[in-house]
Amino acid sequence: MQTSERIRKVEAVIITHKDFGEADRLIRLFSLEHGKLSAIAKGARKIRSRKAAHIEPFTYTSLVLAKGQSFWIITQADTKAGYPNIREDLRKTAKAAYILELADHLTGDEQPEPAIFHLITETLQRIDSVQDPFNAILNFEFRLLDFTGFRPDLFHCVGCHKEIQPQDQFFSVQQGGVLCPECAKLGGSLIPVSQNTLKYLRHFQRSAYSRLDEIKVDENTGREIDRVLGTYISSITERKLNSPEFLNQINHLGKNSV
Fold it and tell me: How many CB atoms lie within 10 A of CB 18?
């Protein structure tokens, strides 16, 4: 095996880690150069480990990997961005965990996805720096759906293919888009979508983040947006994501403490 095949220098975001053996950690990471990888950080659980702080979840880091028998071995790690505000705020922690969990489920192993990598690092920076990351998360969801081929149709009825009119509509998870009221009469598992919510969904889908920064979505519309996209995304991943439930628990505790 050539040296270039045995050693990899990568930029990566740490998705998760878990204990492995007596003192090691198994790291799940998303790299710029090679997409998703699993790697072992030997001795990372030891108190004096120099790698431990650089391989925490949500860290943007430079890594040197050496090919092992079963996994890549992390031989060097240096933090490029630590996103301290994410670590200090449970809600931001849950939202950061969500975008990484979603990217993990919608991409394959060792498949370079540079556009998704840059989307992840940009979104982590936005979550870290803004007070309310709602717009950043919604932008991430739409861009990731675009990159992975799951863009929902919000402008034409997925039943009759006619242009959607300015009125309340329905969203079909199975068909991946909006159904007009006439086609909705045929039945199926549908989510009502108000005209106002559809307006926001369309704007977020077709706009760059620079055009979304000042938009304020009211609480009721935000809940409806979350219901539509959350249900759609769950159907794509074919599993229940852990991070949204974690965020719900945090919000519930926050309300009870008021």
Answer: 8
Is pTM, for the whole model, over 0.90?
A: yes
CATH level 3 topology of 85-257: de novo design (two linked rop proteins) (1.20.1440)
User: Residue 187 half-sphere exposure, CB side, CA atoms within 13 Å?
Assistant: 0
Contact in structure between 30 and 117 (CB atoms under 8 Å): yes
190-221 confidence digits (pLDDT tens): 999 999 999 999 999 999 999 997 899 999 99
What tens digit of pLDDT does each residue of 109-137 get? 999 999 999 999 999 999 999 999 999 99
3-82: CATH homologous superfamily?
A: Nucleic acid-binding proteins (2.40.50.140)
Cα 79 off chain centre by: 21
> Would you call 169 helix, strand, or coil by DSSP?
strand
- The answer to whether the CB of 96 falls within 8 A of the CB of 60 is no
Structure tokens at 84: 């301290």
- Closest Cα partner for 117 from 239, 243, 39, 125? 125
- Bridge partners of 27? 17, 39
Nearest CA-CA partner of 17 in 69, 55, 61, 74: 55
Q: Which residues of 56-69 are buried (b: 16+ CB within 10 A; e: fewer)?
A: bbbbbbebebeeee
35-41 and 60-67: which strand pairing?
A: unpaired
Could you tell me the two tokens for 225?
């947006």
- CA nearest neighbour of 137 among 193, 98, 176: 98
Helix (H, G, I), strand (E, B) or coil at 50: coil
Provide the residue ranges of all domains of the chain, joining segments of one domain with +.
3-82, 85-257
Q: Is 14 helix (H, G, I), strand (E, B) or coil?
A: strand
Token representation of residue 113: 């996805």
